[in-house]
Design goal:
By secondary structure, the protein is an alpha+beta fold. It has one domain (3-61). Helix content is 35%, strand content 37%. The protein has a 3-stranded antiparallel beta sheet, covered by helices on one side. A hairpin with a 2-residue loop joins strand 1 and strand 2 (24-31). The longest helix is centred in the C-terminal third of the chain and has 15 residues, at 47-61. The two termini are 21 Å apart. The relative contact order is 0.17.
Length: 62
C-alpha cells in the first residue's frame, strides 16, 4: 500500500503512517467519517505491506 498516494485520493484519511510499537512496525490508520458515523483507527502489521508489494512484483514478472 502506498501510504502517501492513499492520503491524496481518500478524503476520509486523517492520519496514515508507519509507527513502531513494542519493536514491531505497524501501519497506523485513522479515518474521519462524516456524521452520523464515528471516527475509526486501526493498526496493521507493516510486514503485510511488504508481502503485498512482493506479490505485486511477482505477478508482473510472470
Amino acid at each position: 500500500m502506498d501510504l502517501d498516494f492513499r492520503k491524496q485520493w481518500d478524503q476520509y484519511v486523517k492520519e496514515l503512517c508507519e509507527k513502531t510499537y513494542d519493536g514491531e512496525k505497524i501501519i497506523y490508520w485513522e479515518v474521519k467519517y462524516p456524521f452520523p458515523l464515528s471516527n475509526r483507527d486501526s493498526g496493521v502489521p507493516a510486514f503485510l505491506k511488504d508481502m503485498q508489494n512482493a506479490c505485486r512484483n511477482y505477478s508482473k514478472s510472470t
